[in-house]
Amino acid sequence: IPSIQADQYFYMIACNRDKNIIGLFVLASGDVDATKYSIKSVLIRAMICHATYVVIARNSPDRGCSVDMDELNNFRKLKENANAVGITVLDNIILSDGKYLSYTEQGIQ
Question: Which of 3, 10, 34, 53 has its CA 20 to 30 A from that of 61?
Fold first, then answer.
């Protein structure tokens, strides 16, 4: 079980067309402030399990629930590439100390 205090983890939740969860994947893990997931790894996992929708989530051991420009740009590229292969990215969620930030709820595109 990953510690929310030490390392950062990115996860992908894969859902079918009824938005039922069909897979949970660890995309990346590493340093508190330098972890990044691969768009290719998201799309491959989503296509292998025939996902229609995906959600990206990560813990934030040090930064709280703030949006980083690199992460935002990667999310935008993911949405564009996923859309090209018929997959919809529903959200990017950041979890930190009992709080969360949802890109969808905040209107972040």
Answer: 53
pTM given for the model:
0.85
Task: Give just the sign of the alpha carbon dihedral 68, 70, 74, 80.
Answer: positive
Q: What is the DSSP letter of 21?
A: E
Q: What is the mean pLDDT of each run of 10 residues along the chain (109 residues)?
A: 66 97 92 78 96 93 76 93 97 88 89
Distance separating the N- and C-terminal Cα atoms of the chain: 31
Q: What is the pLDDT of residues 49-76, one digit of tens each?
A: 999 999 999 888 776 777 778 888 999 9
The strand ranges marked E within 1-107 are 8-15, 21-30, 53-59, 88-96, 99-102
Which residue has tokens 């859902």?
Answer: 15
